[in-house]
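subagent[fold] <- orchestrator: predict structure for attached chain, return tokens only, no commentary.
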Amino acid sequence: MYIFQLKVGSYGYPWTKVFLTMPKHRNYSPLRPCVNHFSHCHPLRPIDQIKAEEELICSGCGLEVIGSTFMCSKSDCDFILHKSCFELNLVLQHKSHPPHSLKLLCAPPDNYSRNIFICHACHDYGTGFDYHCSTCQFDLHVGCAKLPKTINHKDHQHLLTLYYSFSCIKENIEAFVCDVCGQDVPDRLWVYHCKKCDFGIHLRCTIPDTVLKKDIQMVSTRP
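subagent[fold] -> orchestrator:
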């Protein structure tokens, strides 16, 4: 338990003791104030370190929480966000969808069936944070929206470049097969490709090579 003496106002109010009860196994920052986030109704408390063995899941992207986070200040509420999810831009202009900007939603739109969206990058479903264009019904996982333009991959010696459909790679291509897993990739899905060698992979096969462990929440294609 931490005990602070806070001066409430400057008009003769007395010093007041404030008792804050915090779990010992989490590294709270007691001198840092709670903050608000559009996705949650309660203030969030910054936490410097969450350990992997706690097995907490981010309420935004749905991936495991490790490292710096923001957790609901209410003891009976389990809402928690990665620091990177907390800091996401509320509006994003993405090269994959040039006509319109994408708005960050805390959940799929109300008119989507079963409260899920399908990501236009990887074609996996999502139930949490969603970069959304209401005009086109276009959706991206927050992780897919942050994928790097080029990556290294253990199965190829050259840099691979991100393309937003395989039809962007060359004309008159009828099909694209992932050179790692051998699966057919629909034209509308994103791929990483080396033009020099005509070597390409779809997003699911890039994930282990595009992420650092500390940043996994920002690039995973799985919600």
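orchestrator: received. Logging for downstream: Helices lie at 83-86, 142-145, 207-210. DSSP finds three helices and 17 strands in the chain.
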